[in-house]
Amino acid sequence: MRFSILFFTAVTAFFAVGVQASPVDSPEVNIIARTPYFHGNAVCYYPNGNYGACGWVLQNSDFVIALSPAHWDNGVHCGQHLNVTYNGKNIDGIVGDICSACAPDQIYISSGAFEALAPLGVGVIPVVWNFT
Ligand SMILES: *[C@@H]1O[C@H](CO)[C@@H](O)[C@H](O)[C@H]1NC(C)=O
């Protein structure tokens, strides 16, 4: 019985994070949001409707994140949301790809997401990011 309750809580937390539809500040979401913050460069990239390493098609306009090999962990973060902050602005992106050339805490973000933080021409920005 105790196991069932724990399992239900885990499943609920998983979906609460995956869907992100509700602004409700549930304890489950808080526990997961209390992950470390990483500091690295975010590089603008153009997935151009190709398949990402997570296995689905990525459009430039999607808010897509590509993780470095150091964070890739066999794709365990695919579909997970990332909060990316730059200069007082935030975007909510979804892990959809790997960035093989990235330094450990560096990320690639699709042009659509990049544009929400800085002009495209800037190309690279120093960001703070966390899994949510
Ligand atoms: C996103 O990051 C900013 C600062 O880095 C933080 O203030 C905010 O609470 C974060 N949001 C989430 C959902 O983690």
From TrEMBL:
SUPFAM superfamilies referenced in this protein's UniProt entry, alphabetically: Barwin-like endoglucanases
This protein's UniProt keywords: Signal
Species, as recorded: Mycena sanguinolenta
Keyword Signal belongs to the record: yes
Residues spanning the signal sequence: 1-21
Protein name: Barwin-like endoglucanase
